[in-house]
Amino acid sequence: MSQSLQFFTPSRSPYVILPKLPATSNVRFPVINFPSRKHSVTITKCLSSDLDATSSQVLASGNGQSGVAGVLSADNVAAVPSHDSGAAGIEVDAVTEAELKENGFRSTRRTKLICTIGPATCGFEQLEALAVGGMNVARINMCHGTREWHQTVIERVRRLNEEKGFAVAIMMDTEGSEIHMGDLGGDASAKAEDGEIWTFTVRALNSPRPERTINVNYDGFAEDVKVGDELLVDGGMVRFEVIEKIGPDVKCRCTDPGLLLPRANLTFWRDGSLVRERNAMLPTISSKDWLDIDFGIAAGVEFIAISFVKSAEVIKHLKSYIAARSRGSDIAVIAKIESIDSLKNLEEIIQASDGAMVARGDLGAQIPLEQVPSAQQKIVQVCRELNKPVIVASQLLESMIEYPTPTRAEVADVSEAVRQRADALMLSGESAMGQFPEKALAVLRTVSVRIEKWWREEKRHEAMELPDVGTSFADSISEEICNSAAKMANNLEVDALFVYTKTGHMASLLSRCRPDCPIFAFTTTTSVRRRLNLQWGLIPFRLSFSDDMESNLNKTFSLLKARGMIKSGDLVIAVSDMLQSIQVMNVP
């Protein structure tokens, strides 16, 4: 026998009695009495016999039907006969299911992993290897490739989810209208050596591309730069000094050698300061970006990341556009913080968006390098306070583009991002064009798991005070319930938090609290399930459920026990955005 506690008020759905409520509230709370069911606290007995009605429901997810390379096989998936053809089922990511079965609740990774898909990883087998390795989100970068190529990648990821039982979401990253290089005439890269003279031009170049000549997308480039300016490629990965201007051509000497990549971002500095007047005049979303956004909406991507966001108005405009073009769409807009303007308007941009990305490469080209770490920490903190997922990106494991092991400094950098409790880490060139994409992903996974385990073992609960984010009385109640549930989960050392959510909002509130245990987020739609795959600590499931919490729990226990993902005696806390309550119970 186990017990479930719910707290009621006479006129509202059940919820926990908590001290922090709006001062204007006139709701009166009843005195808590024991043990009669008619009083404020109800004790619901959950017996194993309660599960009989749902224990024979078929598991319809299809997870592991064909097996997942070295992780799952059909034999791992438990299924039982159904009473009828319309029996309900549950869907969960195949790799997470295997981790839970083999290692238990506490072993699951909380930090989510994003892989940029490129020539090195666009095949179905390579995508499957990344999914098996822990990829939660696949990023397609519209700076590179054609829309037809990206459409093929999207179709392969969707097929992978359907056939292999994954829940990989798709993020489309726009190019932005900042100054950048051309496509290098089709070459994958070009090497600039120290002292070499290169020509940057606004002229359209015929094929083949003249040696050491690069096209620039901004027509006013030759007019704006001056002899003596310093030109930074891709945030300073390669540096040039402007030595001569001849009409539309700008002659530059390489001062810091390195690898030039197609469509790399360009910035130029004068007298130690960034020259940004022209960039400030360029639109955030270019005409090409709008066409790419239409493509992303039609393809049904889960996230659209906007480059070089300068203000909240751009985000609001885009969200209105998406809503008009795709009624009922769940596409989330991610603001990339990678410019001085972004930092100046940080809070309003994050508040308007559905999440943020710390794009450290381009950000490091616009602010002094020594300011990047503190900027990263501030962005992560503001996102956490405002309940928005945050991604740390750029150059996490840059050396692994060419080498099979990372530098120790890179490992320390990854560890710091995990310690800051960022929602997700992102691979860029490491997975798109690197020689060791699977190994790079494995480094992110193992470092994340180890630092998270250390954090829990050391009981390093943050002292960060999370400000209220609720904008209504009902939202404030939900927020207080999630704060209390997370605190209870840590104090009682429960095995898992269960949250039943149709929109994902209460799941995100729980994730914001960063509890020690994993969060099982049950939702009814595939789109919300994939979108939750970006947020820290959430294990998203697709499950049909009702407003009857007792029925939902019985059904969930039955299905998860049949899959071997939970066992009798496990201690869980359950919350729901349909009934504002907290329930504590042992699995029957």
Automatic annotation (TrEMBL):
Swiss-Prot/TrEMBL cofactor(s): Mg(2+); K(+)
Name of the protein in its database record: Pyruvate kinase
Major localization listed first in the record, in broad terms: plastid
GO cellular component, one term: chloroplast stroma
Keywords of this entry: ATP-binding, Chloroplast, Glycolysis, Kinase, Magnesium, Metal-binding, Nucleotide-binding, Plastid, Potassium, Pyruvate, Transferase, Transit peptide
EC identifiers of the protein: 2.7.1.40
Domain Pyruvate kinase C-terminal: 479-578
Annotated localization: Plastid, Chloroplast
Known catalytic reactions: pyruvate + ATP = phosphoenolpyruvate + ADP + H(+)
Pyruvate kinase barrel domain: residues covered: 109-440
NCBIfam families: pyruv_kin
Family: Belongs to the pyruvate kinase family.
Listed GO MF terms: ATP binding; kinase activity; magnesium ion binding; potassium ion binding; pyruvate kinase activity
Record note on quaternary structure: Oligomer of alpha and beta subunits.
Origin: domain of life: Eukaryota
Biological pathway: Carbohydrate degradation; glycolysis; pyruvate from D-glyceraldehyde 3-phosphate: step 5/5
